[in-house]
Amino acid sequence: MTRLGVVGYGRRIHGMIAGAFRQIDADLRVVAIVDPDEAAVRERLQECDRGDVVFYESIDAMMRGARLDAVAVGTRCNLHAGIASELSAFEVPLFLEKPVAITMDQAVALEHAFDGSRCPVVVSFPLRVSPLCRLARQYIEAGAVGEALHVDAVNYVPYGTGYWEQPYRDFSVTGGLFLQKATHDFDYLMYLMGQSVTRIAAMATRGRIYGGDKPAGLRCSQCDETDTCPESPENRRRNGSGGTLTDHMCLFSVDCGTGEQLNEDCSSALLEFADGSHGVYSQVFYARRDAGARGATVSGYAGTVSFDWYANELKRVRHHHPFSATERASGDMSHFGGDIALADDFLGVVHGTRCSRTPIETGLQSVYACLAARDSAAGGGFVNVRQVGAQS
């Protein structure tokens, strides 16, 4: 039996445990939890975990008393860095949700905590390990594009309303949408290009759609505009436009934040990589239905490789030969097949059969890129990206 401890038993980590983790290891059991809301967590736990699980007051008490094989962290984003830093003192494999930090101080402290640590980490970056992304990287490594000179990536998010009607709109918790969303994308782009991002210029458009001056605490059930508002549950059901179909917080209230503390409607970044190649990335949070798209196009003199996770396909074009090809991925899997790959990696690390493909360094390098993008969007101009291993 694999004995798992959990710090912050939220919905995402519960989904990974009940789904992907147990698909790989049916004998995995949650035996220890640190979470202040014990009653809610017990309701969420699967039946096989309810009998023997022990709740602890602190991480130290859990680590010293529970005889764990592994630990998973599923707290809110602003707590990831501090908790991971504390766990770095132990040699127990760690599954860490992204982003691994939301401020530069947190990220640098986390990097220092893991300097010399023997705690192996799997950061929750499912896109990097998804089948389509890995196939694209294999083609690039095999010379399908020649020298990769440019990448163009997009993320048209068809479920973006969640970043204004759910706690994700709390900037103090998430650090904004570069850290909340683009952390995935910057990571897989660095994987595709085989190098880190060194310089970023970014822009963000805020308050043109979401946010506004509706009263604090307003919910649809308290509003007299539900007949005309496209975000009311009634109109979402009628239009098939997605989002929460029950009563929810207003997307146009002062609670969404103001100024740079308001999530952006859309944002873009110009990325320079270590060898001087470059790319562009855009994320759009008001897209709906069939407008959803997420993927990248990598090009060089020899050819172009592109893929889209929503279309579940990859295209390869040979520039100097009369051949093009399209490959389709099968199935409808969580995070495009990346979650099951992450679970396989994590449990392989736990059982000593493999190494992590998303170690703590990948989480940190993505955060450093996201922080540079956030700073650039706020102040303008290019911002240098701190590199993992750089001196303070």
What report would you give on this structure?
It contains 14 helices and 15 strands. The chain is an alpha/beta fold and 392 residues long. It has a 9-stranded mixed β-sheet, with helices on one face. It has a 6-stranded parallel β-sheet with strand order 3-2-1-4-5-6, with helices on both faces. Helix 1 crosses helix 13, helix 5 packs parallel to helix 6 (104-114) and helix 6 (104-114) packs antiparallel against helix 14 (360-379).
Which features would summarize this protein structure in a list?
single chain, 392 residues, alpha/beta, Rossmann fold, Dihydrodipicolinate Reductase, domain 2, 3 domains, nine-stranded mixed beta sheet, six-stranded parallel beta sheet, 14 helices, globular
Question: How would you characterize the largest beta sheet?
Answer: 9 strands, mixed
Query: What's the N-to-C terminus distance?
Result: 42 Å
Helical/strand content category = alpha/beta
Strand adjacency order, main sheet: 14-13-12-11-7-10-9-8-15
CATH-wise, what's the superfamily of the largest domain?
Dihydrodipicolinate Reductase, domain 2
Q: CATH first level of the largest domain: which class? A: Alpha Beta
User: Which word captures the global form?
Assistant: globular
Which ranges are low-confidence, i.e. pLDDT below 50, for 5 or more consecutive residues?
A: none
β-strand percent reads: 15-25%
Helix content: 25-40%
